[in-house]
Amino acid sequence: MTIQRIEPGKRMSGAVVHGNTVYLAGQTGTGDDVQAQARSALAKVDELLAKAGSHKSKILQATIWLRDMADFDAMNPVWEAWIDPANPPARATGEARLASPGLKFEVIIVAARD
What residues contact 75, with CB distance under 8 A and at least 6 apart? Predict the structure, then answer.
């Protein structure tokens, strides 16, 4: 099987496709609060999934990292408005010190292509 790298960079690729599975690197967003960052990160997920020949309805698993679990209740409505309600993925959310002090939200996605 071939491996396709989408938006490869010096350190990582935005997404990697192997067979019919799409792996997205941790996607972060912009904005001052967790809702704005979640919206912008999830928009980037949409773009990467489209480039990989997939869609949010095909997400198998999502791992969400929040800088502060106090943002959990504010983040969830953004997530719930974004996911395909007929096909919710397996999801875990945890608290982590993210790569940059201003980051409040990061999401890692695994999706199918077919």
Answer: 34, 35, 38, 64, 66, 93, 105
Instruction: Give dist(CA 41, CA 30) in Å, integer.
Output: 7
Among residues 48, 106, 114, 110, which one has the least CA distance to residue 79? 106
Query: Does residue 58 sit in helix, strand or coil?
Result: helix
| Nearest residue to 110 (alpha-carbon basis) of 18, 29, 35 | 18
Q: Which two tokens stand for residue 86?
A: 């007929």
pLDDT tens by residue, 40-49: 999 999 999 9
Instruction: Please list, in sequence order, all residues whose beta carbon lies within 8 angstroms of the beta carbon of residue 62, skipping any fewer than 6 positions away.
Output: 89, 90, 91, 92, 107, 108, 109, 110
Which residue ranges form the domains of the chain, and what is each CATH number? 3-112 (3.30.1330.40)
CA distance 89 to 83: 8
Q: List pLDDT tens digits, range 83-107.
A: 999 999 999 999 999 999 999 999 9
User: What tokens does 19 get?
Assistant: 């067979």
